Amino acid sequence: MSxxxxxxxxASPATSKFVRRRHAAIELMATVALAVSLIVAVTAVSIGAxxxxxxxxxxxxxxxxxxxxxxxxxxxxGVGGMGGLTGNK
Length: 89
Prior knowledge:
Elements: H1 17-52, H2 54-60, H3 62-85
């Protein structure tokens, strides 16, 4: 006979406390790595914008400020939408 008698379905098998702790540690390291890479990316974009003197160009052109305002509004709407999708159900 088979060893799978009475174990039908898609649920994962029961894991030990060590495996759950190891998975939690891996998830924590991935989260920290993602946060660090996000900080590096924001810093790089900020340095690039400062070197290109974006704020000076926006001050002289009203269309650019409208575009930046629309972009910020879309980003905020997207963050709010993602927050709504990941809420408790």
